[in-house]
Amino acid sequence: MAINFDTALGIEPKALAFREKRGEILAANLANADTPNFKARDLDFKSVLKQSLASGVSMERTHAGHITPQQQVFGANVMYRNPSQVSLDGNTVEAHVEQAKYAENAVQYQASLQFINGKFSGLMAALRGQ
């Protein structure tokens, strides 16, 4: 009997990849905190989760005349963050907000790694017959 890792690991590998990409976007926000007119961006995990759990209906651009979708990562739109206090130079990065979001994402990344580790441990125990 073959092991299907997609079934065995569930959504965790996708969540891990999403957290990695979100970390890159949040790091870019922090790196551009002093860049005039830079707009802070973020990804919405709930939309990715909802899409992953949905029945699998996907929207594709099948004709050249169709409108192109916004930039997407793992099915989630890269959205701009609305600042609570706008900068005079048009930059919307708020360092304290970005640092908090980055730290939150890092904890969630570690949790995803722990979940995957637990699943592999369970598979190894099953293979050993324990």
TrEMBL record:
<comment type="function">
    <text>Structural component of flagellum, the bacterial motility apparatus. Part of the rod structure of flagellar basal body.</text>
</comment>
<comment type="similarity">
    <text>Belongs to the flagella basal body rod proteins family.</text>
</comment>
<comment type="subunit">
    <text>The basal body constitutes a major portion of the flagellar organelle and consists of a number of rings mounted on a central rod.</text>
</comment>
<keyword id="KW-0969">Cilium</keyword>
<dbReference type="InterPro" id="IPR006300">
    <property type="entry name" value="FlgB"/>
</dbReference>
<feature type="domain" description="Flagellar basal body rod protein N-terminal">
    <location>
        <begin position="19"/>
        <end position="39"/>
    </location>
</feature>
<dbReference type="Pfam" id="PF00460">
    <property type="entry name" value="Flg_bb_rod"/>
</dbReference>
<keyword id="KW-0282">Flagellum</keyword>
<dbReference type="InterPro" id="IPR019776">
    <property type="entry name" value="Flagellar_basal_body_rod_CS"/>
</dbReference>
<dbReference type="GO" id="GO:0071978">
    <property type="term" value="P:bacterial-type flagellum-dependent swarming motility"/>
</dbReference>
<dbReference type="GO" id="GO:0030694">
    <property type="term" value="C:bacterial-type flagellum basal body, rod"/>
</dbReference>
<protein>
    <recommendedName>
        <fullName>Flagellar basal body rod protein FlgB</fullName>
    </recommendedName>
</protein>
<dbReference type="InterPro" id="IPR001444">
    <property type="entry name" value="Flag_bb_rod_N"/>
</dbReference>
<keyword id="KW-0966">Cell projection</keyword>
<keyword id="KW-0975">Bacterial flagellum</keyword>
